[in-house]
Amino acid sequence: QVQLVESGGGLVQPGGSLRLSCAASGYALSSDTMSWYRQAPGKEREFVAVITTSGGSTNYADSVKGRFTISRDHAKNTVYLQMNSLKPEDTAVYYCRGRSSKMDLWGKGTLVTVSS
Q1: Where are the beta strands (DSSP E) in the chain?
Q2: 32-47: string of b/e by CB count within 10 Å (b at 16+)?
Q3: Residues of the chain with pLDDT under 70
């Protein structure tokens, strides 16, 4: 079964860090542009970060620039989102997305809660 599975979410205090993982199964994500999105309670889903197939280019939402880092490991068929200096407004369900000329695939999300 072709799918993306996110993990690594949880409860963290403001100023803390988390690393999210997005593992692909049933296919190789090396040909996909990979992105992270998030959806906070009562809000629309928004773009967080993107990384190209080679990993040579990344882009971030202004709200996370300088705090979050997206990376990919083709050997592990996984994409990561390192989140530092977390703020309460980062609380959301985080989704992984893989896009290519053949498909547009989303994971089911992992919840990140930033609270003291």
Answers
A1: 3-7, 10-12, 18-25, 33-39, 46-51, 58-60, 68-73, 78-83, 92-99, 104-106, 110-114
A2: bebbbbbeeeeeeeee
A3: none
Give the model confidence (pLDDT) of 11-22 as tens digits.
Answer: 999 999 999 999
Rounded distance, CA 37 to CA 12, Å?
19
* Tally of CB atoms within 10 A around 93: 18
CB 65 within 8 A of CB 85: no
Residue at token pair 């882009």: 59
Looking at residue 87, its amino acid is K
What residues contact residue 81 under an 8 Å CB cut-off, 6+ apart? 19, 20, 22, 36, 48, 49, 68, 69, 70, 94
Residues 6+ apart with CB under 8 A from 21: 6, 7, 8, 78, 79, 80
